[in-house]
Amino acid sequence: MKEFDFYIVPTPIGNLGDMTARAIDVLKKVDLIACEDSRVTQKLLNHFDIRTKCVSYHKFNERERVDFILGEIRSGKRVALVSDAGTPLFCDPGAVLVKELRKNNISVTALAGANALATFLSEVSRGGEDFYFAGFLPKSQTQIEDLFKKYADTDFAFYESPNRILKTLEILKGVRSSAKVAIGRELTKVFEEVVVDDAASVIKYFEANVLKGEIVALVFRDENSADIELDNKIEALIKKGFKAREISIILSEFFGVNKNEVYKRVLQI
Asked: Domain spanning 6-114 has what CATH number?
């Protein structure tokens, strides 16, 4: 098997049985493991009797760690990168480091392994293969609303905290009242749960039940997404001060929409 200078190693998102044999072997053979939180990683290493030295690498020190890790690799050492759970660079630190390693012609490889998004999507039936993944949503309500509107025509996946998910679903319900969602929490763990229903019903469910653990969510594409997209364009032009007749001409000219249909929808909004 080919040897590399730098390994990106996924770790279990909950169930330690998901740790691959190759991941264990790599973490035992490298000279250094860069990790988000050494306390979390050390528990994993102890479980698999891995005695490799760790060094912290997280979002607050990743830039200053780049030169150190480059130096270690240039001195002949092999390095692995892990996050607290899941796959590094996937809503976890590592992008800055990998960019610099490739710029310096350091050989990099990634192992297959645990990933919360892939695990979740394999449990949820969707109407198509395409989807948009937003990572963690922005904090601004307006930005969240814009995202839900923009991606109404495709399945929209994101990570969320248990403290924010109900508020996020309320925002969704406000802009897409009939939206269907899937919420996955505690994936691969004892209390794993996936709930699929309309946004209002999911809110009621979690208001009455314990909501803990990391969350992956999916907003299903709307069947009437074309109408929603048209309404979004109309609302944007209304905010800019355009009148109904002007909006109908603009959207007809640039998007090929029937002018009379646009005019009627403007009057309804």
From this structure: 3.40.1010.10
